[in-house]
Amino acid sequence: MSDSSPPGVLPADSVGVVEARRIAIEQPLKLDCGRTLPRFDLVVETYGRLNADASNAILVCHALSGDHHAAGVNSADDRKPGWWDNCIGPGKPIDTRRFFVVSLNNLGGCRGSTGPNTFNPETGRLWGPDFPLLTVRDWVRSQAMLADALGIRVWAAAIGGSLGGMQVMQWAIDLPDRIRHACVIAAAPKLSAQNIAFNEIARQAILSDPEFHGGRFYEHNVVPSRGLKLARMLGHITYLSDAAMRRRFGSELKLAAPSFNFDVEFEVESYLRHQGSAFVDRFDANTYLIMTKALDYFDPSRDYGDSLVTALRQARARFLVIAFSSDWRFSPARSREIVKSLVEADRDVSYALIESQLGHDDFLMPIPAYHDVLGRYLARVADEQVSA
Amino acid sequence: MSDSSPPGVLPADSVGVVEARRIAIEQPLKLDCGRTLPRFDLVVETYGRLNADASNAILVCHALSGDHHAAGVNSADDRKPGWWDNCIGPGKPIDTRRFFVVSLNNLGGCRGSTGPNTFNPETGRLWGPDFPLLTVRDWVRSQAMLADALGIRVWAAAIGGSLGGMQVMQWAIDLPDRIRHACVIAAAPKLSAQNIAFNEIARQAILSDPEFHGGRFYEHNVVPSRGLKLARMLGHITYLSDAAMRRRFGSELKLAAPSFNFDVEFEVESYLRHQGSAFVDRFDANTYLIMTKALDYFDPSRDYGDSLVTALRQARARFLVIAFSSDWRFSPARSREIVKSLVEADRDVSYALIESQLGHDDFLMPIPAYHDVLGRYLARVADEQVSA
Asked: CA of B352, closest CA in chain A: separation in Å?
């Protein structure tokens, strides 16, 4: 929904007012950690219509701090559309005239799906730190159970950026018969030591906050806001390129005179503090820990003798891999590692390097070349269904 | 002192056992913040001998967490030499057979010089947060008073890496008649928005630690260890290149199986936690705040219509600027900005880009090409004195 529309008038390419729904999965889910969830809920939004043979479904996997609300608005007056609204809608790259799009809040999330801020039926208390740490494989399993519940045997495509792209890779490896196309955007085959270092500092900020209370902060009616704020501020540095920060905040770096105190002096400081504080209001610290650990643990080659090539030989999907030139969190070199392994594994892969400005966050931006590549790729996916 | 020497036997190229001394400056120092210190102490170490006309003195300026103990050992059994021992000594690049080297703990530091962890004579209490925030200009003024106290009218050279290099630049601009050569290593003409963002998060980690107590933690017999630890961990990410972290910790990234808890799993985590904890034992949180603010405030162009060229036209020194290829904190591009401005200002400058592996920390490493450039440059400086 563009900001230029008057309130209450939705643009023609919006999916419109959407409502989330809760899908109850009344089956046990065995997790990589060895524990089993007897049942779980996933909150989803869907856009478009599932066709008769359920062959037009697209799974959208979210990144670290994302959720199910990817497109549309929650009410006609809602001015803030979903996090990927620029990409999902009628006539947009993920075209809801042709596809049935499923967007979920991952297991362990904090927006309604079973996670640390929901009740553990066995104890009657909020899960908190008792909620198991998860892997990307666990998510794929849970998403497969969601697909079953929705009557979707095979995804036309799974699509995700960053941690979302990692879920897509894992889908292609773990359930090769259930995914026809894998769109892996701004991702990496596994984290670098520097990536893990950033995550570790974010976790230490949360874990060492006295108001974290070992993860039971709910019961103390507090939140570990200092730690979670620091974690988010730190994340933001990795989402933006040095050049983007310079462009955005550079002119503010000319101080007429220092204030000689710790108040905000530079715009970048106020930006980070604002981003950090806003995040505390909407996100759960235990979920943040779960998400960063899932990132650190992601390594699809682990089960295949540390060979990504061998891992990817399991896949049957065709791949679209997209990287952004200004991304230093998961740089184009990391995407090329994926592409190279796919080629070695004799898989079908298209690769696009998008010239970009902002950094890792570019995967959320409506960059024309990016949307063009993704849109054309998915148009062919849609055509396949028609001709099949 | 190399680790291969038996205890008690100093290598021939060591400056040997050194003792710090406290220089009392019994004169007022007017600071950029508008306040005046009526007097102050600086703790220094010196290596080599001042010659008769005091023309062979080199000032070593330290970086964020450095101190006066740059070379030698504190006792014959001390296995841990000063922070730049590989560069300072007889026959080393900063050759103590030819130069008299002065290394100080900066004003505001925490290793004996007047700073937040020393007593404010006006109140009889530790300064803590009442200690003024400082600028690089303030340090240059204080170092000039130190030079006076030591009978040094003109430095043969001032040398520093990172924040130390910024002090050297400021010396050349503010007191052009008192410095013949300026060696600016791994520095930048001012901080980027990303640099400031990292500093801001480090500060917020300290300021938001409940045990910071508004900077009066001394009086509560605690230290803001969580915040200071996070700050240091974060700093470390910026001192190492992504590739260096990968080389050092990469092989550890292959987990046989996740532990599914928040214990250390990856070597990079234990490295960062150790670095953070060790720092808490040796460094003061208020000093850390002062140092990061001095970095943020550094902008020698501010007094010259935001023109670095105009600022550098004040300089009379000849410059050696050294950058490291793997440094992403203050990348070679930042050093080239300095060089370009020096050239435009018609100043004499030599520039060396050192191929390196580690990142910003390379300015502390005995990289042969680096020590060769610095050593040859300084040998010419020494020859000048002889022929003068």
From this structure: 24
